[in-house]
Design goal:
Strand order of the largest sheet: 1-2-3
Strand content: 25-35%
Oligomer: single chain
Structural class: alpha+beta
Distance between the termini: 19 Å
């Protein structure tokens, strides 16, 4: 996971009323309002949702791996 992705995840944790993470099986993004428009930001462009879940566990400090 890139540093910028970690920064955005931290923003989502700190401001859950402002930022929403949307997860699909093959993509994930952050939605937020900017001047009345819904904006999106691709988050960790992994191929599958399980890869994103694995990276989230690592971000949280877990000793995690895929098998």
């Amino acid at each position: 996971m890139k540093a910028i992705d970690k920064e955005w995840l931290q923003r989502c944790i700190n401001e859950p009323d402002t930022y929403k993470i949307v997860v699909d099986n093959d993509c994930q993004w952050i939605e937020f309002d900017m001047n009345g428009e819904t904006c999106t930001l691709d988050l960790c462009p992994f191929v599958y949702g399980w890869e994103f879940a694995l990276e989230l566990l690592k971000f949280m400090g877990c000793n995690a791996e895929s098998v």
